[in-house]
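Weekly puzzle thread! Below is a chain. First person to post its structure in token form gets bragging rights.
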Amino acid sequence: GNGKWNLDDIRHVRRPLKGDDLYLPQNKWIFNILWSDPIDEDEGAAITSTFGVHASHRAGAAVEFGWDVTKTFCARNGLAMVVRSHQCKDNGHGFDVMHERQLVRVFSARDYEGHRNDSAVLSIKLEPQGTGEVLKVR
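Winning reply:
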């Protein structure tokens, strides 16, 4: 989504949410947390297409968001990175590191609906502060 919510907003969501609850106007931001997609930073793309929030071609109510949204959201919420996992990429490796290394897209279903994609899992290991890489891919 547009990233204008914070982690406390999520903590205060009344649970459980039923499927129809996501379509209520007051819950549009929750729908977008689940279904919005990051915009790939393509070297040939115009800055206006990789910056900000845009309508999604995948879902009518969802949006696509640029690196600036990820960067602002992480800074405002004291996060180093966002990990998300619902988007399959054609011929993808099962993961992408995006948005200046502040967003990781992981997809765990191989050859999803014939997209010829690999699958991936993310293993997070706590390292002593200042010892190097934040993210290692193997």
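Puzzle host: Confirmed. Bonus trivia for everyone else. The first helix runs from residue 7 to 11.
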